[in-house]
Amino acid sequence: MRIPRPQMSYANVIATIALFVALGGVAVAAGLPKNSVGTRQLKSGAVTKRALHRKAVTGGKIAPQAVTAGKLGVNSVRAENLGEGIVAASKLVDGAVITSKIRSGAVTGNKLDNGAVVTAKLDDEAVTNGKLADRSVTLVKLAPGVFGQLRGRVESGETLRGIFDIGGSTKVARQGTSFQFPLAAPPAGNVLGANGTSAACPGLVNQSPEASPGQLCLYVKAQSGNTESFGFGNEAVTRLGFGLRAKFGAAEEGNRVFGYWAVTAP
Question: Does residue 8 surpass a pLDDT of 60?
Answer without folding.
Answer: no
